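Pilot study result, target chain (233 residues):
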Amino acid sequence: MNAAGAARLALTAALLGLAPAAEAQVSGTVGVASDYRLRGFSLTDGRAVVTLGANYDHPSGLYAGGSVVAHDPSGHGVRLLGYQAYAGVAGRFGSGPSWDVGVSRVDMTPYFDRRYSIEYTQAYVGLSQGGLSGRLSLAEDYPRRNGATAYAELNGALRPADRWRLTGHVGALKRLNGSPGRDDRTRYDVAVGVVREFRNSEAYLSWVAVSPRPPPKPSWTRPGLVAGVSAFF
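Predicted structure:
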């Protein structure tokens, strides 16, 4: 973990101490998935992962949390793929939409190249109303160092029946600086899925794609299905 990642985790720990334990709302999740996708890209080349996460919500609207991801690359033993940590504040405009402002840290080492790490910090702002939410994120050093990008996303959920959800996501990534070239193209990712809810758990299946796919179009950029199960506590 680098100094920036340690600083974000320290911020998370500080927020956890803002309120007495009686007021704390802490939740956790354990999940297993057939693949791990970040903005449409597979970081495990279609290999399964295990995820452990925790989240804290303060009555004032402050929140913090994070998750760690592990996988087994080609039977060589389980290793840590990376982690995500975040902290922010959320509220509501009267009886209107909810708002959300925060910062997050991502530190991942993809399966396809152990020499290449995805490490970036981003600031974000979002709005949500009912089953629809949108967010704009600005990041330095993504997807590579000395680069800056903007990522806009729209997420939606519908409930066609009790304990069922249909989900949708579309995101657009735009490079803001750096040398001219193919990376200047706006890149889009989409995901559609179905979720079956159970008591303290859920199972899901989603289809994920990204376009345009960067050359040489290896398997980690191709569209695919992701299946998983999550348990909440």
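One observation from the pilot: DSSP finds one helix and 14 strands in the chain. A full batch analysis is planned for the follow-on phase.
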